[in-house]
Structure formats: C-alpha cells, structure tokens
Amino acid sequence: MSVCPCGSRLEYVGCCGPLHDGAAAPTAEALMRSRYSAFARGLVPYLLRTWHPGTRPGELELDPGITWRALQIVDTVDGGPADDTGVVEFRAVARTAGGERHVQHERSTFRRVDGRWVYLDGGTGPLVR
Known about the structure:
By secondary structure, the chain is α+β, with helices and mostly antiparallel strands. It has a single domain (12-122), classed as Roll (Nuclear Transport Factor 2, Chain: A). It has 3 helices and 4 strands; from the N terminus they run H-H-H-E-E-E-E. The protein has a 4-stranded antiparallel sheet with strand order 1-2-3-4, covered by helices on one side. Strand 1 (67-78) and strand 2 form a beta hairpin. It is globular, with a radius of gyration of 14 Å. Residues 27-122 form the YchJ-like middle NTF2-like domain. Belongs to the UPF0225 family. This is UPF0225 protein GCM10009539_26730. It comes from Cryptosporangium japonicum.
C-alpha cells in the first residue's frame, strides 16, 4: 500500500485512487487534491477529464523532470457538497531534475458541471524558488 500524494496521510486506494478510477469528488477541495495527485502520478487523462470544457486545453504534456513533493491547502471558499462553485488556494512544492525547489501557489476556481466538480481556472503565478 502507498500513501496518497495529496497529503491526506491516507492510503491512495482509499483517498484519490477512487476518484482517479471515476468516482465523483464530493467537494472542490477533494477534486483539487485528486488533481495534485494526478500531476504527481502523471495521470494526464484524469487531468483533462476533470478540467472545465470551456477552459480545458486540447492537450497536456507534463514535464517528466518535475517531481511533486508536497501539497498545502491554504484556504477554501465554498465548494462543499451543496455548492455549485468553490475556490481552493494551495501551495504545491516540486523539485526539478536539477534539484531546484519550486512552489506553485494558486487560487483555483472550481464549478459543478453535470453534477461533478471540475477545475475552471486558477490565478496562477510563476513557479518561484
């Protein structure tokens, strides 16, 4: 068994694994955590499937030199089981192949489409050291 990359300290099979296998995320934060885990595990189809159709790129190529190391949830606004929109602010720590540390700080917007949470967009800043 392996610990889930999302930082929940739960086993992957009981945390983000079911979402990656097709279960609906109950909250915007759960979807954000599962998307982080998908980046960490290289699950491009999941990332595209959980992206809002109006903002989804035609294709997505992950940098194989990036290793995602940690996730910190900074703030959440709405995004609960009874909401249709939500915001999750987070910091994701990564290392490059050359060993440089980077932090992705984003305030992401999520929306329900056909009853399922999807990533709409993020106020992404540049990766910082």
